[in-house]
């Protein structure tokens, strides 16, 4: 598997740490249900999923990767900072 | 049809013409008392227990492929009861006891081989952890022995005791642990369930779960609608997708785990050995092939195959810990889809929908669980109360944070197990 880093380009999977599903973070004051949903529950799709990958051995960017869980194909990537996952504070 | 030494001899002398199929191939009935989704080890053992222990025989197991084609036939066959935390500890203890009587119970040779499993430690911290784990296992009533380096060397001379970075200091041995023939476990439970009247329906994919007013009514399948008073999930790596058919979201991510087998060589390894370094584990099958594996690939996957970095890691660790194996050629490798929970421990519980039950989250350790899980899950389905050995496998522990069972102590988070 090769991941396309928006800054460095096409790189070996070994250069990355994978965090898992890319999910918008609830507000700090969100309910227990919302946090449970965020921390534990997953759609776990067989198909395209959005995930957070960290270019640990490259430019240190966090990247939102759209990837197929069935074929392992990388569909698209963008910087996580542009993916609006930070939530409100 | 019963198996016996006499029968094998007689068939051998008469051209093996008297064997009959081990189970029927029935058409699905319009309605059952219990429908089980998934014909893997857990589904089949549950059906067997429903019939045998609870007299519930109007049961169907629906399998989208063929019996035993999922993880039950893809694992590395390790059976043990050396878990540390309350909840897991009593459950796996219960399951190992069931394994010990399984062949007589099923009248089926599952090739249960209690050859002993050793968890190797490389430093003082790991040794302390092993002592503690060993005491917990003994408290639970199971066996554990701490071996120092010399005692371990006598038992397993082939290991690399002097690796510069990860020298081997000793190990924790459980003599009652070992391996079993995985396919035979599926076949044995399938045959036992079928003999007691359970319908095993293959090539029957569940595509929907019917729920009305909070109560389950039955399932939609590739072979038509089947009504059921109770529906029990046992879909392992596909649990999330099957649960979604009833509108449920589970605390589960599906990940790929790889396994490897070498060419057959003369006996070099009598035990199952697992290493604190690199998560590596190795055993030698009765055919002589070395069976080994290590970590998950660590990204979500429904492809029953992994990627090269984890192949590389596994080979590197294997050659570092057991250098003699460098000369053996790897013959086969494959992957299976694991239903990973945030704490790495399983769920056997009500779903919150009346008549719909959950059995999932077995992660990479659900083979050894099969007899115990069949027993416990059938108890829950039949009586609506948890079995005494599985009271802590609650779905709600993730919401409340109470009763999490994080054996590895890495934190109860999705990407950490
Ligand atoms: C490489 C590898 C090594 C492992 N090593 C060990 C080990 O050494 N020790 C150990 O204890 N555990 C081990 N495991 C884990 C163990 O194999 C699993 O936890 C366990 O087998 C899962 O339960 P099961 O047998 O019921 O699963 P499965 O055999 O996967 O059964 C689930 C069944 O559900 C069916 N299904 C799914 N969706 C549907 C649907 N919609 N309709 C109908 N049917 C459906 C599937 O086709 C499948 O047959 C390992 C796993 C792997 C992959
Ligand atoms: Zn980069």
UniProtKB/TrEMBL annotation, chain A:
<protein>
    <submittedName>
        <fullName>Sarcosine oxidase subunit delta</fullName>
    </submittedName>
</protein>
<dbReference type="GO" id="GO:0046653">
    <property type="term" value="P:tetrahydrofolate metabolic process"/>
</dbReference>
<dbReference type="GO" id="GO:0008115">
    <property type="term" value="F:sarcosine oxidase activity"/>
</dbReference>
<dbReference type="InterPro" id="IPR006279">
    <property type="entry name" value="SoxD"/>
</dbReference>
<dbReference type="Pfam" id="PF04267">
    <property type="entry name" value="SoxD"/>
</dbReference>
<dbReference type="InterPro" id="IPR038561">
    <property type="entry name" value="SoxD_sf"/>
</dbReference>
TrEMBL record, chain B:
<keyword id="KW-0963">Cytoplasm</keyword>
<dbReference type="InterPro" id="IPR006278">
    <property type="entry name" value="SoxB"/>
</dbReference>
<dbReference type="InterPro" id="IPR001763">
    <property type="entry name" value="Rhodanese-like_dom"/>
</dbReference>
<dbReference type="GO" id="GO:0008115">
    <property type="term" value="F:sarcosine oxidase activity"/>
</dbReference>
<dbReference type="GO" id="GO:0005737">
    <property type="term" value="C:cytoplasm"/>
</dbReference>
<keyword id="KW-0288">FMN</keyword>
<dbReference type="InterPro" id="IPR036188">
    <property type="entry name" value="FAD/NAD-bd_sf"/>
</dbReference>
<keyword id="KW-0560">Oxidoreductase</keyword>
<dbReference type="GO" id="GO:0000166">
    <property type="term" value="F:nucleotide binding"/>
</dbReference>
<dbReference type="InterPro" id="IPR006076">
    <property type="entry name" value="FAD-dep_OxRdtase"/>
</dbReference>
<keyword id="KW-0285">Flavoprotein</keyword>
<keyword id="KW-0274">FAD</keyword>
<comment type="similarity">
    <text>Belongs to the SoxB family.</text>
</comment>
<protein>
    <recommendedName>
        <fullName>Sarcosine oxidase subunit beta</fullName>
        <ecNumber>1.5.3.24</ecNumber>
    </recommendedName>
</protein>
<dbReference type="GO" id="GO:0046653">
    <property type="term" value="P:tetrahydrofolate metabolic process"/>
</dbReference>
<feature type="domain" description="Rhodanese">
    <location>
        <begin position="34"/>
        <end position="78"/>
    </location>
</feature>
<dbReference type="Pfam" id="PF01266">
    <property type="entry name" value="DAO"/>
</dbReference>
<keyword id="KW-0547">Nucleotide-binding</keyword>
